[in-house]
Amino acid sequence: MEIMEKILRYKGVIEGFYGPMWRHEERLHLIRHMREWNMNIYIYSPRNDPYHRFCWNLPYPAQEMKNFTELAKECKRNGIEFSYAVSPGSSFNPDDPQCRKALIRKLKPFIELGCKFFPVFYDDITVSFGFDTAEGEKQAERQAKTMNNIVNDMVKLSPNARFLFCPTQYMTAEKSRYLCRLHAILDRRVETVVTGVDPDTDGVCPRTFSDAGAKRYFENFGRRPFFWDNFNVRDNALNILHWSPYSGRGANLDKLCTGIVLNPQNHYILNIPIFGCMGDYLKNPRKYNPQKSMKKHLEKFMGQQAAPLGMILSKWFTSEWFAGKGSGFLLSENNLPPIKEKLKSHANARYALLKEIRKRMVSLCNFDVHFENTPMPTQVAASLIVYAHLLSEYAKAMVEFCDTVLRKEKNCKEAGRRLLERVDRPETECFRLPFSLIAYARECAKIAD
């Protein structure tokens, strides 16, 4: 298939994570800066907003509607499309006319606010059917019928309305009886969400979303993908920083997808450099350079003096969700030398490895001190200092461990225990190192056994 012209209509952010939601002021900040990031749409979809999901059939309280009114006005003022998403899949009965009427009542105030793009999500619901079964086909027909009825009801109120649907199976470009049937009967006016199209990476939080995968989605289903991008989301581990520059996306997605929206971190301010990087990608995917872009946006975010420290944090706190060992994807442990098998029986190789680990770690032992003594915006410093401390503590622990083993002391096994005591902290702690760095320390401790 020859790639010709850009078809990417929707470029922006979906507030679609679980857990703590953004504050109203943070949403306003986003909307006021989206144009400079080459974005044009904000989708409201916090998964733990009860009125968005489990209480989808209830109207919002007056204060919440007042906030939505302000968001809609701010979007209009800044040339951004405001979109409100609803997720009724958990309890919506398509055979009950009252359910359809309740959904239209829910969406009507947003039509009055000027919304024209309406996402309806059937993701993350409890299912008792296989996607490649007859029951999967039946459920696809049921969901498509529901969505088609919603489309027909909505266009009576808003003739220019547009729609987005998130299937229950949303993480693949591969054929299933569910997806094939859904696409066959779903109204052609409806875009469809997909989070992953490549078989060699996780489908929900993929490290890559390739041109080939996007093409395969179209070839299999006859519909262009609308990419819900979970690049740096961390809603199932709020205590870990995901700070890689936006990367791993195909160079021609602007010619293959109808939408790309980033579902980011709960801690709003930490997304700002990533928004900037994504904006550079959206401007020209074929000339985009992740590292140069991150450097530029960290200088804006932290100031020129502090930006190099931000680059170090970005290097060690990567967006490594579901990156398998040896996969080549954004693993923080890639900053350290690989630990080969059978090191115990090769003393020289073992000591060479420890010396190299020490060499890479020693310069980070006082990273937190440098961070604390470098001028930068106060809110930025307060949001990042804990990660500076974590990185320095990891470096100190690793250096101490390496020194003990290199001195060939008798208490090497105890050194391994102390290493893990310092860095292998419970997942419930307030802040945590990247998983791969902890796994690396565990492998190091085995050397001392």
Give short descriptive properties of this protein.
TIM Barrel; alpha/beta
Describe the protein in words.
The structure is a single chain. The chain has 449 residues and is an alpha/beta fold. The chain folds into 2 domains: 279 residues, TIM Barrel, CATH 3.20.20.80; 116 residues. 44% of the residues lie in helices and 8% in strands. It has 14 helices and 8 strands. The chain has an 8-stranded parallel beta sheet, with helices on one face. Helix 1 packs parallel to helix 2. The longest helix has 29 residues. The chain is globular. The mean pLDDT is 92.
Outline the fold blueprint.
Blueprint: E1 10-15, H1 24-33, E2 41-44, H2 62-78, E3 81-84, H3 97-112, E4 117-121, H4 134-157, E5 162-166, H5 177-185, E6 190-194, H6 211-221, E7 225-229, E8 259-262, H7 272-283, H8 290-302, H9 307-316, H10 347-362, H11 367-372, H12 378-406, H13 412-423, H14 435-447
Parallel strand pairs: 1-2, 1-8, 2-3, 4-5, 5-6, 6-7, 7-8
Rg over alpha carbons:
24 Å
Q: What percentage of residues falls in helices of 4 or more residues?
A: 40-55%
The CATH superfamily label of the largest domain reads Glycosidases
How many domains, as an integer? 2
Summarize the structure.
The chain is an alpha/beta fold. It has helices spanning 24-33, 62-78, 97-112, 134-157, 177-185, 211-221, 272-283, 290-302, 307-316, 347-362, 367-372, 378-406, 412-423, 435-447, and strands spanning 10-15, 41-44, 81-84, 117-121, 162-166, 190-194, 225-229, 259-262. Helices cover 44% and strands 8% of the residues.
